[in-house]
Amino acid sequence: MTTYIVGVDVGATTTKFGLLTSRGEHREQWKIPTDKKNGGKDFPPQIIAGIEERFRKHGISKGQVLGVGIGVPGFIDEDEEVVSAPNIGWKSYPLQSVFADAFDVPVCINNDANLAAAGEHWQGAGKNEASTFFITIGTGVGGGMIVNGELVNGVSGTAGEIGHTLVVPHGRLCTCGREGCLEEYVAVKGLRRSLRDHLRNGMDTSRLHEDSDAIAIYEAAASGDALARHIVNEAAYYLGYALANVATMLNPEKIIIGGGISAAGDTLLQPLHLHFKRFVLKEADRKLALEPARFGNDAGIYGAAWLVMKRLGYFDGRRWPLK
Amino acid sequence: MTTYIVGVDVGATTTKFGLLTSRGEHREQWKIPTDKKNGGKDFPPQIIAGIEERFRKHGISKGQVLGVGIGVPGFIDEDEEVVSAPNIGWKSYPLQSVFADAFDVPVCINNDANLAAAGEHWQGAGKNEASTFFITIGTGVGGGMIVNGELVNGVSGTAGEIGHTLVVPHGRLCTCGREGCLEEYVAVKGLRRSLRDHLRNGMDTSRLHEDSDAIAIYEAAASGDALARHIVNEAAYYLGYALANVATMLNPEKIIIGGGISAAGDTLLQPLHLHFKRFVLKEADRKLALEPARFGNDAGIYGAAWLVMKRLGYFDGRRWPLK
């Protein structure tokens, strides 16, 4: 009898689903718009209905379902309730209980970047490594880490939050209320802020203007625009600096770069490597590789399934998949 | 039959030993000067002879010895050989093999700060916490961490090396060859460097002069000397900044401050708390405590014994000590 796991990745605009067999094969993938009305409280019933519909469609009985894993863009407590997910509206929201009541199987909740880290660790760029640090750069900057084969959550769920490590004391004001967070220098809004600052200072450009977005900045940099290259190099500098400190402190085997901005490829990775090598402790870099993510947006679904399988003891002292 | 574990903490000037029962009780503690002649190669036979002498003295047969744990001030590889321990002279030195040949029991080697972290986690200020970050501030700055109950080594042994995380890009030159490492701002030589810089800039003091040492600086700060307070506040600023980033990224339950300089007590801890609170991500600080170490210099011996007991499976899913 084939058994199944459901991986859910709740996003600010779209929520993605994966129906996986317990051997890690994708049976079906689908997505629905995230319903943020009523503080996000209307949405869980829609997630549950969508999953149950798929079970019916594939003739999957409740006994064949091993568990449900859910990634959420926010801080998750140790009892797996949502402390805050501002992009959805959830605040002190008992997400785990809501799902555990609906499905009579283990339900695991975790931060979305942590689960993307787990997905890359399990099936992606961090495969077969005992320790992986994953950073995702897009609208904001998130991160997650696998240490000694285990996902690290931290005592209040912030572990891996590299976007909120400080790189400039008393630097740019961040949405978190503090100053100088990495994400204010390398994520989408950070790049646009750099662009405006440099335009105001009269830096020359043939391709960029006040309203250019992050994609335009990276495209202009790839085609040699001086201002765009300067902005990208600045972002790579702060990213290299922050990742070098992570490498020194955590000393993982892999540092994986994911998220929308990582699509810029070598335009970002080349200057990043340069700055990283200069800032990192030599001994920490001896066996470490800095690589782009292998999954695109699906890492979170895999990670959510991994979390459930991990909880069920699938990886304890055994090679996955089970024979 | 009582069984025993030997914990060894190799220091730059003195090497400390602890003979512990497998219930964690101290049977005897002793120390010998560290012999650094001949690139440190004369020293291991002295360690071995000292341990064997204690076994004879207490009538302990080889069958009663469960293992030997050794802390070394340097980088240790995953196969537990010493990559480099510049203060002893060891470089690519097969310390594990030398001891495994002498004693027919498990021999575990690890970095000294990692083992001090393990000692504080096991029996000290981090007792009963699943995750602990330990920082030791003295001649240099070291650190270690326990995550999900496991010691984190990293792929090339640098995990926990907070002293070599950068706090000032292109800042003071460090012995590691890079610029702006935390240890250049808060360890003994960092304080003295700050002192000289500020004296040169004409800052006023009634108690300090060019040759004042770290103890004098902290004593002067405690008695209200303006320059000394300025220097200590500066060190606390950088320390608070670096520890806030650790708290955000690792989100441990305890951050423990140890090492010689931590003897300064509130003179350091008060400004440190202030800067830490200002720099840390609010969510990361919700359940976190910043505390002085409970052990003095003995944490490493306990940690070395812990490492052996851990290897022997003493803590797996059971409360220590065994009933």
TrEMBL record, chains A, B:
NCBIfam families assigned: ROK_glcA_fam
Family, as annotated: Belongs to the ROK (NagC/XylR) family.
The protein's name in its UniProt record: Glucokinase
KW Nucleotide-binding (keyword) present: yes
Organism: Salicibibacter kimchii
Top class in the EC scheme: transferase
Presence of keyword Zinc: no
Gene Ontology BP terms: glycolytic process
